[in-house]
Amino acid sequence: MLAERVKGLKYLIYQMDVEPANPEKNRQKVKDWIEKQVPLHQPDTIILPEMWNTGYALDQLDDGADDDGKETLELLQPLAKKHGVHIIGGSVANRRNDGIYNSSMIIRNDGELIHEYDKVHLVPMLDEHKFLQGGQAGGAIFELDGIKMGLVICYDLRFPELMRSIALQGAEVIHVVAQWPESRRTHWRYLQHARAIENECYVISANSAGICNDTQFAGESLVIEPNGDLVVEGSPKKEETIQFTIDLDKVKDMRERIPVFSDRVPNLYKMDQ
Ligand SMILES: NC(=O)CCC(=O)C(=O)O
């Protein structure tokens, strides 16, 4: 059944202080947050940060990772259905047959899992290659309430080709779920503004806010409009709930005013492939 396209969507971001290597505590935190905040604010959609089950305790993933999404889905699917809310499920450390992935799950407000995406680009600065497998499918693209949307995971934000390919498939909103360190917070902010401007779409991010192995995560979850303006931001380094509503007419207006998609000349762009 085709969902009717809505004009505005009400969101809540959970800028979570993730407890390293403690999936049970983190699942309880997410459950408590949803049970409290969703009835209070009545959003259409909520978004969680990256690796919210284990945090970046990468050397302890063997104990904490999900078993092919089981633990995350058992938690989030009933909550999505109970509260009638779409869940952009951040990402979790997730064991599949051939190793552990950094996987995102998108759950519709009827409890249906509509999309899964494994982070493609692994972060050399965090030694992710030693502990995680990289996903093999391109960026995530899915539809909620008749709106095409995309999702990338943290370091993926540095690859404009990935987000361009998602926008070229029609995404009007691209979500970024992250555990981005404070030490590179200027990159975090400028890259999101750039991706929103070049793709003329909303960029909505959920970053974590805690500390793991001496790394302080930035918080500063952002919502950027298609013209590059900041709509709202989370506080630095602090757990927080952020609410806002997006206006999808702004995507249409921007794409009509500055027609970068129809002005592209891809046969002149020398890419690797
Ligand atoms: N979790 C991440 O992907 C962190 C990315 C990062 O620190 C960077 O790109 O810089």
Automatic annotation (TrEMBL):
Q: Do you know which InterPro entries this protein is assigned to? A: C-N_Hydrolase, C-N_Hydrolase_sf, UPF0012_CS
Give GO MF terms, alphabetically. hydrolase activity
Arranged from A to Z, the UniProt key words for this protein are: Hydrolase
Q: Which domain of life is it from?
A: Bacteria
Q: Where in this chain does the record put each CN hydrolase domain?
A: 9-248
A Pfam family hit: CN_hydrolase
What family does the database annotate? Belongs to the carbon-nitrogen hydrolase superfamily. NIT1/NIT2 family.
Under what name is this protein listed? Putative amidohydrolase
Q: Which organism is it from?
A: Gracilibacillus halotolerans
- Supply the source organism's classification: Bacteria, Bacillati, Bacillota, Bacilli, Bacillales
